[in-house]
Amino acid sequence: xxxxxxxxxxxxxxxxxxxxxxxxxxxxxxxxxxxxxxxxxxxxxxxxxxxxxxxxxxxxxxxxxxxxxxxxxxxxxxxxxxxxxxxxxxxxxxxxxxxxxxxxxxxxxxxxxxxxxxxxxxxxxxxxxxxxxxxxxxxxxxxxxxxxxxxxxxxxxxxxxxxxxxxxxxxxxxxxxxxxxxxxxxxxxxxxxxxxxxxxxxxxxxxxxxxxxxxxxxxxxxxxxxxxxxxxxxxxxxxxxxxxxxxxxxxxxxxxxxxxxxxxxxx
Length: 267
Fold this sequence. Notes:
The chain contains 11 helices and 12 strands. The strands form 2 sheets. Strands 1, 2, 3, 4, 5, 11 and 12 form a 7-stranded mixed sheet that branches. The protein has a 5-stranded mixed sheet with strand order 8-7-9-6-10. By secondary structure, the protein is of the alpha/beta class.
């Protein structure tokens, strides 16, 4: 694939990514979203399944068309755990791995005119009064299942869908611009996704970390793996709100006219 080195591929190490990477024939760097974004940006990876916000703040990449991790309603695994009303929350502990979800949370809070402070996530399973916690991925699933009676869970996928009526895109396959054989790579990733979804029960049967009945519901009811016109519209809406709230890099914000149409270099 590359003249200078073998293809270096990274992927978020969450349950929601299994149908997109299971069966890939070469070694894959599995890590948290923020770590993968940094490695991709530095050129240490050629392609990675990473936070959609990485593309918004650094739109140099090609996007593998047709594939995303997204939701069109409750996502289950991106939530704010809280006690009482969200309007009474004074502090929210942020998961530092949450590149996209942290900014989605800022957009949703801004819409409700809520202004809690953001603080580092603690290791405690309890939360002081007036404090909530953003949780993503496998950690969110396990926390919800263990503490379902102790907390309420503000599902960010559900809140976004209620607000804008569109899916939310959490992650995309992004390819660095110097990768040459990007079309063949993109086609193989689409084929792999299709193969895994066609054999989803077999994939679930191999799952060791989560209850299989839960996995069936999660894959069929909560997460989506397409990147069609509605998902693209949702991503563009997220881009507009990130621009309006000055969440994008300063050089983009200071460049003048914003490109709200968000050109997508899809392959």
